[in-house]
TrEMBL record:
Record-level GO BP terms: tRNA processing
Protein name (Swiss-Prot/TrEMBL): PHP domain-like protein
Annotated signal sequence range: none
Alphabetized Gene3D superfamilies for the sequence: Metal-dependent hydrolases (3.20.20.140)
Protein location: Nucleus
Keywords assigned: tRNA processing
Family the UniProt entry places it in: Belongs to the eukaryotic/archaeal RNase P protein component 3 family.
One family name in Pfam for this protein: RNase_P_p30
Length: 194
């Protein structure tokens, strides 16, 4: 079974957006049994968006498809409390702020920490802090879609990947697509050729 834990989702999908999402989900299920996480991104002070998964019976799936609900909180400000565990299967955090990153590793009730892969991170990753996140069973996510679209983003993605793999020894690092279009979806074995 394969997994892609970052398929971007908008709670205000129009017909075109829904068709793009269906194409992505259909492509995923042509390869093997698949689990995807539909991901909404929100700011720390925004109201919690909802996810309504599309009807997968109309996709013509070759293999089974399991859909999870995920939220990514994009913030550079410290969070008071994250009380959305019952609404989503996965909670991720993305930040440009070193202090928020450290708090996420040490205290926040989250499942994943991800990064802005289209820009250089503005702080040094601390191996001690990352180890504490691993001890708390927090995973780190690498997304490859930006690396496909942009040469500079590819450089940033590889820099983050090298550091994370070194500091985690490859444990608790997941690779997701972050794909907005079906052309950005890659077979798991093809990702290593990026």
């Amino acid at each position: 079974m394969y997994h892609d834990l970052n398929i971007p989702y908008s709670s205000h999908l129009d017909r075109s957006g829904l068709d793009k999402l269906r194409l992505i989900l259909s492509k995923c299920t042509q390869q093997n049994e698949y689990t995807v996480a539909l991901n909404v991104t929100m700011n720390h002070n925004q109201q919690v968006p909802t996810i309504t998964p599309p009807d997968i019976s109309t996709l013509g799936c070759k293999y089974s498809l399991n859909i999870l609900k995920r939220v990514t909180i994009d913030t550079d400000a410290p969070l008071d409390a994250i009380d959305i565990r019952g609404t989503y299967d996965l909670i991720a955090l993305r930040t440009r702020n070193a202090q928020v990153f450290e708090e996420a590793c040490l205290r926040y009730d989250i499942d994943l920490i991800t990064f802005h892969f289209d820009e250089r991170i503005s702080f040094e990753l601390d191996p001690t802090v990352i180890q504490k996140a691993l001890d708390r069973n927090i995973y780190f996510e690498l997304c490859y879609a930006d690396a496909i679209k942009d040469k500079q983003a590819r450089t940033y993605t590889l820099q983050i990947a090298r550091q994370l793999i070194e500091y985690t020894k490859g444990k608790q690092v997941i690779i997701s697509s972050g794909a907005d279009t079906v052309s950005e979806i890659r077979h798991p074995f093809d990702i290593f050729y990026l």
